[in-house]
Amino acid sequence: MDSDQRRKWKRVNNSGGKIALKLILSFRSLTLGITSFLFILFYFYGSDRSPFRPVLRASGFTRVFPNLLTDDYFRGGGKPLPLVIESRVLLPDHLLLVLSNRVQRGESFECVYYPQLGDAADVLDEMLVKLAISADDYQESKSIVRCELPPVNFSAAADLRRTGGEVVEGNWMRSADSVPDWGKVVYEAILDSNTVVVLAKGLNLKPHRDVNPAEFRCHFSLSHFNKQDSFIFTTEATAAAQEVVRCLLPRSIRNNNTELAEGIRVTVSRVATASPALPSVAKVYNPKSHGMREEGEAKYELCACTMLWNQAAVLKEWVMYHSWLGVERWFIYDNNSDDGLQDVADELNSLNHNVTRHVWPWVKAQEAGFSHCALRAKYECNWVGFFDVDEFFYLPRQHRGSQTQLPGQNSLRALVSNYTDSPTIAEVRTMCHSFGPSGLTAPPKQGVTVGYTCRVQAPERHKSFVRPDLLDVTLLNIVHHFKLREGYRTTNVAETTAVINHYKYQVWDTFKAKFFRRVSTYVTNWQDDQNKGSKDRAPGLGTEAVEPPDWRLRFCEVWDTGLKDFVLDTFADGATGLLPWERSSSSASSSAR
User: Fold this and answer.
1) How far is CA 217 from the centre of its chain?
2) In whole angstroms, what is the distance from residue 424 CA to residue 472 CA?
3) Smallest Cα–Cα separation from 199: which of 361, 434, 51?
4) Residue 546: how many CA atoms within 13 Å on its side-chain side?
5) Cα 127 to chain center, whole Å?
6) Which residues have a Cβ under 8 Å from the Cβ of 113 and sit 6 or more positions away?
7) Which segments cross the bilayer (predicted)?
8) Rounded mean pLDDT of 430-444?
9) What is the pLDDT of residue 5?
10) Predicted TM-score of the model (pTM)
């Protein structure tokens, strides 16, 4: 590296870094030793026959020492002490750091990179610092920080410090191989009864079908699996499909309290190959302990789940409109947005909409994310719909003799709840109509439901509400629908009863984002020269985001103002004409007049 390049990087204080290394590594070693001992003690003496049953929720440091890893604990004299990095993942376009504790919103961080080779003194001299891309909450008690990819000849085992502060921990002794690559890693694990559902990249399973679970095993440990002294328990898989492997919990936990599994590390291996288990950054997450419903409290009848990226501008319209139709609970999976989505969620909650933003940092993992969401919804909802923020349910006027009946408030909930007590139906499907730019060249100010009024004539595909407690154990899904448990089936809603207005082909500045971000695992990115005839692409477009001259006139075969007319008649303010999503949180009301 030449002198000009070096001057562009900040250097970390040599002596202070060495002292911080020794103190923090000693603390980590001590706490890891204690938690490992307690976990082993629980495992061997936790059976029904043992007179000794320690009360322990084994979830690493945070359960054994609940105050040691909180941001408040680390504040001494007004100065925050180092945070704890529990995992790193090398994603395609950035390096992800997972922290064991929460950071304050708006805090600024710097990522610290180490040369791949050299002794301790050389490394401390050559550490390089760059401002982090962003930081965010993760799960209920953790945080993530996104760093730029490591420079050439620098390790991916980067560290972190608050801007201008001290380094979290020194990892110059770690090799770059200790940081898993996104193509082969276990990234999430979620508790479901006496099993754990593990989400992993690198299984290389065929899409849209399940496989023999006997091919896989799960392994559990308190420490990183690459440590020689890690204590590992192995269990059998009971189901497998796509990026999902479901395994039994260790026997002693099944025999006592399955919630004790929260926080334990887990990974997956293949039985028939000699290859080692996949690298893992996943710890078991218990959705039941973090839900919005208390034990024994009635479930919400109708919920919705979506995954989005930088669509905060349309979230208010989507939530407010469907809340009026009867959706009671919202699971918003945020796939690395940077457009203020949390602020919009906070505003919606101030208006009594029940919105939870769940940070989903994993790229090209929509199907697995929906499996994750289905398990979360299972404990809170009778029905959960999986549809996008550019898709709006529309219940047309019903003509009965000489009478015309408009859909009323909560009419979507009433439609779906008709099947709640059905002994066979576990999925309700609704067809989609795809709308085009409708002659517009700028995003409609009153929202998509009012602005886009011309569509393709034939319906395309469908979206579904499902019973999350009646899904197949594989959680196999194709985004639009899930595989159901044996003995249950789907029902299709007639287009005269309900349809979905899919505002798929919007004005070019909005639409072109699809070229750069496709969240589905099995949908080819539009820049890739593959599957050009797929329905997931826009007809007539190539692999580059170049606006066709006639874009504003495309996909316009039928003028359809049904939903526009309904929205203006039902939601517009009588005095100002404003719709609820056009007004600020101080003046908006989620109820229509």
Assistant:
1) 25
2) 14
3) 361
4) 6
5) 33
6) 127, 128, 129, 130, 150, 151, 154, 155, 158
7) 21-45
8) 97
9) 40
10) 0.84
CA distances from 284 to 189, 190, 192, 333, 466 (A): 5, 5, 10, 18, 25
Longest dimension (CA), the chain: 88
Cα torsion for 279, 283, 286, 292, to the nearest 10°?
-100
Q: What is the pLDDT of residues 279-335, one digit of tens each?
A: 999 999 998 887 767 667 889 999 999 999 999 999 999 999 999 999 999 999 999
How does DSSP classify residue 278? Answer: P
Q: What share of the chain is helix, strand, coil (3-state, %, to 5)?
A: 25, 25, 50
Helices (H), 163-281: 251-254
Alpha-carbon distance of 221 to 235, in angstroms, equals 12
- The 3-state DSSP class for residue 465 equals strand
**Is residue 195 within 8 Å of residue 218, measured between CB atoms?**
no
| Whether the Cβ atoms of residue 143 and residue 105 lie closer than 8 Å to each other | no
**pLDDT digit string, tens, across residues 374-395:** 999 999 999 999 999 999 999 9
Residue-wise pLDDT for 25-49, tens only, equals 444 444 445 555 455 444 444 433 3
Distance CA 88, CA 435 (A): 41
